[in-house]
Amino acid sequence: MHSISGRFSHKCFNCVILVLPLIVTGCSFSDSSRSVSNSSESISDSAGSLSDSIKSSTSNREKKYENEVSDYTMAYVKSSHADADYKSYLKGLSDIAARIGIVNWEQEPKTYIAIGKGLKKAGIEGIAYETYKKNFAGSDEGNMQNIQKGYESDK
Amino acid sequence: MRSKLQTVSVLSALVLLLPVTAAAASFNYLYIEASEGNSSGGHTAIQFDDEIYHYQHVDSGLIRLFRQEKNEFHFIYRYLQNRPMHLSRIEVSEDTFDLLKDQFKWQFLAQERQFKLLDDLHKERVFIRHLLQKSTAGHAIVDADAASVLRLKGVGLFYPEPDQQPQHIDGNLTKQQSLNVQSLRQKVEQRYGPDFLQRRRAMIEAQIKALAPSHWPAIDSDSTGDKFPAPIYSFTERYSDYLTVLFAIKALIEAPPLQADALLRMNRPAFKISETERRLLQGLRNDLETGLIKAIDSNRPDWGYAVLVNMARYIAIDASLQSGYWGFIDDFAEDSERLRPDQYLEHSAQIRVLTGDAKAALNQVRLSVASRPRLTEAEYSQIEMAANRYIELLNSEQRHDFRYNGEKALPSKSIGFPEGPVPELTREQLTTALSALDNIENSLFETLQQSYRYNLLSRNCVTELFRTINQALSKPYRSGDQLADMEALTIKESEKRLGGYVEIPYNFIPFVAYQSVLDRYRVTQSRDLGSYRGLELAKLTASQNDSITALRESNIVTSRLYRYNPDDALFVFFTDDHVLLRPVFGLVNTGVGIGQSVYGVFIWPFDSGKNLQSGATGILMSLPELFFFNMRKGSYKYLSFNQLSHAGLAEGGF
């Protein structure tokens, strides 16, 4: 059994020893060849031998895609207004879809279902909801129905 | 015996009587032991379900929140970095779990947006400088920054860098590729009319000329994750999207074949297409054709990239169907890590294991899609990635260079900005825009520094983790008027929801903070998870003679579990499993570090100080060993996830 003073001095000793290297690279991630914004990507790259198909199953990847689109939509609508230029939003969707290997995300019903869920989570209602729905769906009837489906599924 | 049963019955009854909110959910607090390299003083993270959040100090001097999948995180820290991990499970109510998880998630998303804005601002400045040079000298001086930042994604699949000649493979294949593109163009013209592409091109050229620098509003950097900065579709992004569209139209009109290095073809039996796969590929080829036709007339600003990727994959699939063997578009990023034979030959046994795994992964994903009625784009991307990895690793069999990592889910081969239409802006307009951007970028960076500047004692991976926990706990009180004593409320909430409170100023060191979590939070379970070498050593010790194994594995010369990884500073003895001998081994390791440093001084002009730096790191890592303290563990570069998946990664549902 350790005495309190013994434990304290042990802790102090460990602290002194640990602070030395901490000064050099504590909690650091260093990859100077990449810019600040994409350094998260380079962390994953260090696991070169961890193939993407192993990291998660197809169903998990699709679920993750839906969650990311939904969260991204919520974040977007919370930070902009219904009439904002939504091209930046569409670019963001392309980035999320690219991570799971989808370039034709406009042809994926799950994209629009997830958008509907995001609008619901953001608490968008009434005319604002209808405006977002029309803009995000590119006025396509099928896409609007899928947004509605997602909106109604997220209680 | 009877009294024991009675006690169990009483306890069971008590458990049933506990409020429903108790023990409804749990999250994990992780402490990763110190080692050489990243987070050398130890590291901490928090896990909600399968997602792990942790703070890292990045090169810009800021500290950022990262999110990684559980498997990936364990593989990097416990296996590649070979560091033992300690895990505590903290039971909380569902409500507290959601509160904490949401706080980390929204802070992560808000930070992603903030740092993307910073990156976009940087690109904008580089682009405007590029335009200024063009307007002054008639051409732009392409510096390294501009060359790496101003690029058109996807265009490199069909066109070479602006100053280079196209590289095509000869023969019937290029003819067939051009015929594929011509066929796609005909479909586009059937759908939208014969002069549609020319009209689109004229419209885009006019839009480029009319482009003006974006208005950048003041950017709020809220570190709590409550507010998101408004997204901006920048001037540079608009320009590069327009240029990419012009290249997509040009490709449809000119019908060039793919660049020689864009298509990977393998005529090995392992790549033979089965009848089921043929049917699936025919279906996907039709889907890509539809995707391409729809993309051309869509509202998405990056439709040029979508057209180029669809076109390239259409060609690859058609080539596969024609030849009977799978062919794939190269999906490696341009900055992928490339290994030379002298770097990997020492580890050739491990590289063979990786090659075998890559082959197995490709077969597995091919098998899994074979039973499906149709092949989706995402599934095809998985096959493409697995095949790219396998084909690249096969280069090691011929002792060639190969790309070790960097495969992407979508092909992205790019080229630098070419000579072409540019926005019609005067020098004055460009100078004014550049000056405004300088101010905005400096202001955003300063704002970010206020919130995220790394500090060894007051803002590191541990302090930020607890700060975010505290922000979550105080969130319910932040919606109304600012309360006088937020700290007292946070402490009260922490005690109520987590079982106790961890004071940030006294817990900035990872292992101290972990002890505090064990002492104060409602920890229901804790586990020590071994590092790769630790687990393998335990297996060896169990099956072989203890003393001989210990002696053999104590140093890098005779060890079978570790081959020297040049990413590690040079050392001789492992000291993590030899407490009593640690100072003696440490002395030898310090001597080796000093030796490497002295050698580094002499060869500095030839290795840019690499050996000197490595030697100095070696001394720094060895000094604590003289005082019975271990930091260095030795790291691994070429481990396979498959090889290790049975070694306890997912055991116990952690």
What's the count of strands of chain B? 12
Uncertain ranges of chain A: 1-9, 29-49
The total count of strands of chain A amounts to 0
* Structural class by sheet pairing and helices of chain B: alpha+beta
Helix residue percentage of chain B = 40-55%
Total helical elements of chain A: 8
Enumerate the spans of chain B where pLDDT stays under 50 for 5 or more consecutive residues: 1-22
Category from helices, strands and their pairing of chain A: mainly alpha
Mean pLDDT of chain A: 74
Most extensive interface between two protein chains, with residue counts? A-B, 73 and 109 residues
Global outline of chain B: globular
Largest sheet features of chain B: 6 strands, antiparallel
Helix fraction of chain A by DSSP (H/I, runs of at least 4): 55-70%
Oligomeric organization of the protein chains: heterodimer
Number of helices of chain B: 22
What average pLDDT do the residues of chain B reach? 89
What does this structure look like?
The complex is a heterodimer of chains A (155) and B (654). Chain A has 155 residues and is mainly α. Chain A has a domain at 57-153. Chain A contains eight helices and no strands. The relative contact order of chain A is 0.10. With 654 residues, chain B is of the alpha+beta class. Among the domains of chain B are: 25-98 and 457-529, no CATH class; 331-410; 532-632, no CATH class. In chain B, a hairpin with a 5-residue loop joins β3 and β4. At the A-B interface, α1, α2, α3, α4 and α5 of A face β3, β4, α2, α3 and α8 of B.
